[in-house]
Write a structure and sequence with these properties.
Helix content is 32%, strand content 14%. The protein has 133 residues and is α+β, with helices and mostly antiparallel strands. The protein has a four-stranded mixed beta sheet with strand order 1-3-2-4. The chain is globular, with a radius of gyration of 14 Å. 28% of the residues are buried.
Length: 133
């Protein structure tokens, strides 16, 4: 993120999980000034090829619920989504340090504490190259 030069940073898994032709849907709320961060939600279109059963039914929903409880006002349905966009200056100000999977949760917790507005949006997902059958 230190090397990013644009006003908005977009993250997406490199295995073609997300339909990047719909990037405008993800960054739209940020460009319109209604959100500082937007997460694409995979939960509407889940199947065996897009997420393992335990992640679909327990992992992602439980982590998302816990984060919403810990961070009043946080509006996300899929807290672990790898498809997210955010304002560059806002995310740099968060001082993120997590090196692995906990990065997604750290970002949401710190953003919530700093009063960043978040939104959840639908994202088209497919099995991609990293299919988890």
């Amino acid at each position: 993120m230190a090397e990013a030069r644009g006003k908005i940073i977009v993250m997406a898994d490199a295995d073609r999980t997300y339909d990047l032709s719909r990037l405008g849907d993800l960054v739209g709320p940020i460009a319109a000034g209604t959100a500082d961060m937007v997460l694409g939600s995979r939960l509407d279109q889940l199947n065996r090829g897009t997420m393992p059963l335990l992640h679909r039914l327990i992992g992602t929903p439980v982590i998302s619920f816990a984060l919403r409880r810990a961070c009043p006002g946080l509006r996300v349905s899929d807290s672990q989504s790898g498809y997210r966009a955010f304002l560059t200056d806002k995310v740099r100000a968060l001082g993120l340090k997590a090196p692995g999977m906990e990065f997604a949760s750290e970002m949401l917790i710190r953003a919530s504490r700093k009063g960043c507005g978040s939104a959840s949006g639908h994202s088209d997902t497919g099995p991609g190259l990293g299919s988890r059958n």
